[in-house]
Amino acid sequence: MAKENFTLLLLYFHLLSMFVSLEATMFRNFTTAPCNTIERKALVEFKDGVEDPTGLLSSWVGDNCCAWNGVVCSSTTGNIIKLHLRNLNKLSDAQFLTPGLVGNISHSLVNLKYLRYLDLSRNNFSRIQIPSFFGSLRKLKYLNLSDASFIGKVPSSLGNLSNLQYLDLSANSYIWVSDVNWVSRLSSLRYINLGYVDMSFASSTWLEAFGVLSSLEELHMQRCNLQAFPHGRLPTVNFTSLLLLHLHENNFNSSIPLWLFNITTLVDLNLANSGIQGSIPNIAFRNLCHLQNLAFSSNRINSQLTEVVGGLSECSNNSLRLLDLSNNYFWGPIPASIMKLSFLEELVLDLNDLNGTIPESIGQLKALKSLSLTGNSWEGIISEVHFHSLEDLKYFGISSTNKSLAFDLRNEWIPPFSLEDIHIAHCQVGPSFPGWLETQKELVAITLNEVAISDTIPAWIWDMSPQIELLFLYNNQLRGTVPQALRFSPVMSVVDLSFNLLEGPIPSWYNVICLWLSNNKFSGQIPENIDQAISILDLSGNSLTGNLPSSLSELKNLQILSLSDNQLSGKILVDWKGLTGLNALDLSKNNLSGRIPSTLCSIRSLTDLKLNNNNFSGKVYKSLENCTRLSMLDLAGNEFTGKIPNLIGERQLFLESVNLKANKFIGSIPEYFCHLPVLRILVLSGNNLSGSIPPCLANLTSLKSFTSYFESQLGSRPAYIEEMDLMMKGRKLSYTKTLQVVNVIDLSQNNLHGEIPEEMMNLSYLITFNLSRNQLTGKIPENIGDLKHLETLDLSCNHLSGSIPPSMSSMTFLNYLNLSHNNLSGPIPSANQFHTFSDPSIYEGNPELCGSPLPITCSMPKDKDEEAKVGDHRDDGIEMIWFYSGMALGFVVGFWSVCGTLILKKPWRHAYFRFVDRMKDNAYVFAAVNKARLLKKLKREI
Question: Rounded to whole angstroms, how far apart are CA atoms 481 and 477?
Fold first, then answer.
């Protein structure tokens, strides 16, 4: 019953919108009552307040307003009951043929007291708020203000429209709601769409407001910046009629609340890309037996797939048509019970953690039109049984991250379906090209990437080229030649045959906007007659010879041109003015020579310029500063001379990587590098640069934090895989996809002198720091340990002295170190990462270094002991001097403390001497008595 209600609701609103113009015409033909004068005046005032470039209101002349375009009157009273002023000239959600009505909305419309239907959608009221007087149009049942560029706060007076059944405020990105309690008063509401309206201030109250609307059948609140998902028991939730709930593209960051699974009437549930996380209760979907569409894609749900499929398949009357769980963390195999979802038309399980074999029962889903299983860890065999009853299948996509899935389909097999799009990647399909695909006469898109085909491309593929829009046969072992002249689909096609063994001359194909033929064995010259429609041309990694054809400068739609790693010769073209949209130019690894033409930067859109590893010479023109949008500049491995030119102008804000290594540049390092806000890679090695290292390099803000300063701009750059060869961890490495997270300063192999600037130790996100083979002196900065994310440090072959700073022990990411051939001394640190540096060669050439892994222990040498003893004797002599000085001082102080007092105090002096005389007499008597006793004793003994 719910399914029928949902279908009827959609049909009701669809017909209401589609035939409104026909209805208006019928009312004009049969209206007998005259136009209401007050209401006519209201419309005239409204017309006077807006601009009408499309002539939508051109018929608004004369007395009979009921005959005007977009106006519908009551056939009995003549009152205006419908005003349909939707801009029908809009191309899409982001494009206009014309802006529609522009200006203000006259307050006079408040006089349309019998108005039931008001549609002002897709116009351009970009400087006004939604008028609060709309809340006075009490008879309104239908109000559509969507995509009309309103701004500001949504008026709460709309809550007065108690008869309103349909409300659409969607696609007005600059309106917001602070309190949604007014919605709870719309007791007759059946449909509401607030998509793209900022409801962040109402995140905690929206459910209570909407939950009391028992008549509500459709609730659209996609991309509303909702940041809370109420949990627990909510007695106000009374969605007894709700059929559709769209809450996708919000930011709930919570698990799915249990109350949602109690809305048993739901037919369409969309929570895609809304920050949903956690697991799903195993009984969650048993109550949602009326679901037709279920979309949970692009969240962080971590559950076994059986929990969803098992619950849905338990409904005896299930009518599920769409199941989209892609881009989550669902795990486990596809349960065999999937066959119970017999009405399923779209099954989307891409980009999860699913594994195991594909159940043969999936072939029982007779209604299936789209089956998408890419980006999981499948294994086992795909056989003809898997497709047994899939007669309506139009799209089939599968890939296995562990490459353990194989296809066992006979070449002569005739499938029951007629595909339009096939996508198979990272599986075992070959070695022969799948012959059964020849039966698929409706194919417009073919993807067979990395499927182990070592065969020629069959002729029937090329016979289908007039209908092909996408042909991806990337990274196989396809061999042979390709047809020289083909015409692909007129809607423009993309073709990727790269990383194969194809040979022969480069073809001239038409209606191809993106062509990747890189890393094959194509030879000969680049053709002159390349189609003008092409926007991406990648012929890199072949054996092409000859000069650059002048016709390249005529490809006005070209955005990316990659001709690297060939055998091209001659000079760079002089005329580049025709390439007004070129973003990336890669001519690296060829035999090109001469100078860089001063006209190259007439391409103002250029972001990536790679001329490395050629035979270019001379001075680099200062005109490169006119390339104001450059992000990558690679001139390495040439014969450029002179000083490094000013590569930037005052407007250059996007330069991320500069590679000038292995040239013949002279002079000092220009300080303007310090003023590039997003510079992450600076490689000047292998030149003849002199002078000191500019301390202002410490100002490179992009090396101080993980997020690039202009990250938003970088997101708009073309789909071009950048590549750069860098010295990392002591060897040459080629970086492509990971280049965006590499932070490098390489100034090695020059004649730089002076000390390492201590200021540069604040570049905490620097990953590679190479200053080797220079003439640097002084000590390694004590705070070098502040380079917390450093992985490679090479200071070898300089004249650095002093000890290895203890702070280096805190550089826990460091995995390559070379300090050899300096004048360092003292012990080698042994904590943390230094335990892993067991190669003694990284310390060699520093005779005064000691400790593991060097064979020299850090015990003191003999001459040092003697020097220490001399020092000890010297210290003892100083102590004796202080001892005797203290005695003399003490004697003087003691003497004058006593004698000085006796001299100054006469009574004290008399008392003192009497005391001395008494002590003297006592001593004499004591001695005399004892002497007499001793003599007397001796006589007795005799």
Answer: 13
